[in-house]
Amino acid sequence: MKKLITNTAFFLVVLTTFIGCKKDVADKYFNPEKATTASPAGLFTAMLNNDRIAAKYWHVRTFLSQMPGVYAQTTYAANGNSIYKQSDPYSQNYWDDFYVPEGNGSGVMALYRAMEVSYSKLPEAEKATQATIMQAAKVVLIEQAAKMVDLWGDIPYAEAGSLETKATINPPKFDEQKALYTQFISDLTAAAAYFKANPTNSSFSKADILLKGNVNLWASYANSLKLRLLMRISKVDENTARTGVLEMLNNPSNYALVDGGSNGSYNPGVSDILLQPLTNSTSDLHDAFLEGSWYATDYMLNTVMLPANDPRIPVIYDKYGRMVNGKFVPNANYRAMPVTFTTTQQDNSFPDYSVLDSATFLFNQKLPGIVITASEVNFLKAEAFERWGSTTAAKTAYDIALRQSVTFYHYLNSVNQGGGYVNVPMPASTVIDTWVNSASAGYSGTATDKLAKIYIQKWAHLGVLQSMEAWSEYRRTGYPVLTFPSNGKLAGFDTPPTRLVYPASEMTYNSVNYQAVQAKDTRKTKIFWQP
């Protein structure tokens, strides 16, 4: 397994990871040893090329499947005595990958700080062109920084990256998490307004491997990320959230969203914010899943999907089966192992239960990294309308979100062309209609019932590939109501945490600043947005 490299060589990482962009990397990086001489455009491209967003082995295997996915039950895990214990080396690795480029992530903080230095040295005339890139880079930084807050709470932010900005290492203070969210929301408002008011340019289009320089999509991305963050704080700061969200939802012409045009049959490849694989990428996730997290999860399949005859099942799961007399015999039905199974029961019974679909998840070299989708946005809209507006509008958004989730997962299945896989055809509209209006999925009942359906279906949509968002939403909403077996677990680790504890590096190398947050550094301390 690949491991960390030193920060002094971080632009060598940028060089080696960028061969597939069809342009000479030297055009982007004038001096790969010094961040201060690299162009904002080249640094921005490297910032986007992030293996913590892309569908890559290391992130899925060592982080999503080890921690967030286990704590949100979007990922299968062996029911051992340490199942809820944080993996210190892998959480340290994720932390490092945010701050410095080390091969598993792009090091968005270091690259952004280097961009700030490079931008400050440009002639004024050139700054006008590069300003668009700086605004987009801020959105990318915020999306990743918000995830850091959701995982840990207070994090170093304002003072982080001194090596790039001052050519010296100054241990950074921890910024208060609520204040960071307030800053993120303000910065996203400014970024969205900038993209709405300014055209694209060739430098931006050349550098932007995410949205190809489409400023309209960048405005929608910034607004949708703002919507996500506002709803995230809505259980503890409802006035701020309600005001900000309704301002957007009541003025759609001013606040475009990544909502697929409110069309259930939208095109995810065009409308969603997805990091597509580089043209020379041949990797897939089969090792990441086959090494332990291949199996269907209990609540997702047995409780949410099967009773409703969910049309997503055939592209998310495979029935699996056993070898009988030298011949593979598939199981008759879809079903997941009970979450209460012991490890012995799991080991003895796994062939009898469903697994993740191989064409969609395991051997799909075209699987994109998921940033935000139309279905998530419409679930957020549905929640906002149900809590602060019209339940009729909420139902409309909810029904669209369900249809878009079906479209999205069939899209993921469809991009895997060749290799002997037969893509699952999109179900007939009548099949989807029956599901949308079924007793278990349909938008009915009390306001509490309706909100629960929004939360559960959004959790199901986020699924294994967006386990971090699923865990955040589970902690925020309390849905779905999951069972976490506690028998035989390590003392102090008999239930999942509510946050990750800080990595050892902060206690060792940033000890003075760590003291300010040490009292909050427990696995059961709530993130500020948790009710």
From TrEMBL:
Pfam families linked: SusD-like_2
Record-linked SUPFAM superfamilies: TPR-like
Database matches in PROSITE patterns: PROKAR_LIPOPROTEIN
UniProt name for this protein: Starch-binding associating with outer membrane
Organism per entry: Pedobacter nyackensis
